[in-house]
Amino acid sequence: IDKVAEKYGKFDFVLADLGVSSMQIDNPERGFTYKYEGPLDLRLNPNQGISAAERINTISMDELEGMLIENSDEPYAKEISNTIISEIAKTVVEERRKKKIETTTQLKDIIEKALIYLPKKEREEAVNKSCARTFQALRIDVNNEFEVLYDFLEKLPEVLAPNGRVAILTFHSGEDRLVKKSFKENVKAGIYSEAAKDVIRPSAEECRCNSRAHSTKLRWAVRS
Fold it and tell me: Among 70, 139, 163, 215, whose Cα sits 20 to 30 Å from the Cα of 88?
């Protein structure tokens, strides 16, 4: 964005949508979802970096635990969440010793195995949520998403014109925390004249029409 601003001038308005394309998610060959059989890839650019399969087959158990805790947003109480994460990391390491993890359904089966100790009536929901968050954690990791967002937020003040506005759509709490912290610090430093005090959420009607909108949060700021 700094290169574009250098060439064409500073922006009066920037809108950043941090969501992954639905067309990518729905394509089994990209490996973004545990709901379909496909290669465990998860790269936004399949020609760059290493795949999620390569990552999960070489990562240490401690590092995998840390990745899941930092990137996952597990919906359970902390002590239960940490137990689930530990069980997933432990089972992944055990299973990959027997056979390399290469597909989306392999990883889903491993997560199901890790959570077999949960009561049957809550296991299905727990497996679905843990699968979604494990895939999210891996996707964030292999694409360096937090690093890219941090770099973008660092450059924003320099590319916005006076009174220029920025609005950012985030889709999980890790992204939202980074945006909130950046906006707050820049308001305090006088770089932004104001910023959203609360997130703007989609309406019930929008969520009904588009189920993938339900986790969206929007924050905005104005350049001084």
Answer: 215
Three-state DSSP at 160 gives strand
Q: Which residues pair with 194 in a beta bridge?
A: 222
The pLDDT value given to residue 83: 84
Q: State the Cα–Cα distance between residues 158 and 112, nearest whole angstrom.
A: 47
Q: How far is CA 15 from CA 1, 174, 218, in A?
A: 12, 19, 10
Task: Tell me the whole-structure pTM to 2 decimals.
Answer: 0.89
Gap between the Cα atoms of 131 and 115, Å rounded: 11
93 vs 96: CA distance, rounded Å: 5
Amino acid at the residue 96: R
What single DSSP character describes residue 118? S
Contact 170, 219 (CB under 8 A): yes
Tokens of 180: 């909130």
Looking at residue 38, the DSSP 8-state letter turns out to be -
Q: What is the mean pLDDT of the chain?
A: 93
Residue 24: closest CA among 139, 132, 102: 139
Residue 18's Cβ-side half-sphere holds a number of Cα atoms within 13 Å equal to 29
Phi and psi at 214, nearest 5°, equal -65, -25
Residue 178, token pair as written in the block: 């980074």
Which regions of 56-151 does DSSP assign to beta strands (E)? none
Give dist(CA 138, CA 51) in Å, integer.
Answer: 9
